[in-house]
């Protein structure tokens, strides 16, 4: 059995401590996608983070491995190592060049969404004016498909996400997004979006963030309730887990350089407060998720689908696409 966490965040700093990754591994996680940057991070910071994370992984090969295939993940689990890839949250670090997608793939990025809450030249954010996928965005979708990268729609505007899912030739995922029907937050996804994702063959992975789960102190039962909603709506084969735990580390300042305005990216009008940050499920919640999912009525096999096999299926298809790079450089 492979437990797959579709999205987690260390500090955006090349010296980030990987202790949280070890905690996830100790809790039973076999694979995690680590964020290496978003639309608010200049490319200099993104590249510095990628270089630092790669160096940390390479320096401890008995514990970590940067992977590029599902077979690599299965082997890593057999070897007792944590399998890791990277993800990018937004198209701005792509510099309006679809060719940049191939470069990020070579560096270990295996998952990309195009907008972080706000609009850019490629796509719409979920907290901005709806416009739809731009012509550049269409070319970016093609580049993501061609390079064997998971096309993600988290943080993306509703109309735009539907257009991305319609444009993609491969399954599309939401790596960390919850049902809007359960919690009415603009970052959550509607039944229409969930159904469209399932129609591509994709997976909606439940976030463990308090704002999106509707619980001030989120736990395994909260995550399981949201996963069960997705399973009931579109089938258990389209539900997954991406806890989106953001690990802070004292002494590391990962604030984006330059004119950074948190209120722009997390607007008060959308329900965010700089005075009351969200809370997250702890990594150890992974130990409790199998039982929590069974409490919703899932069988052991159905729980295994949600905890990893669904994302394994999608990654197996996408990462082994005809033009996908065989190995991370």
UniProtKB/TrEMBL annotation:
Taxonomically, what lineage is the organism? Bacteria, Pseudomonadati, Pseudomonadota, Betaproteobacteria, Burkholderiales
PROSITE patterns attached to this UniProt entry: RENAL_DIPEPTIDASE_2
Q: Which GO terms describe its molecular function?
A: metallodipeptidase activity
- Lineage top rank: taxon: Bacteria
| The protein, known as | Peptidase M19
Species assigned in the record: Duganella radicis
Q: Which GO terms describe its biological process?
A: proteolysis
> Which SUPFAM superfamilies does this chain map to?
Metallo-dependent hydrolases (SSF51556)
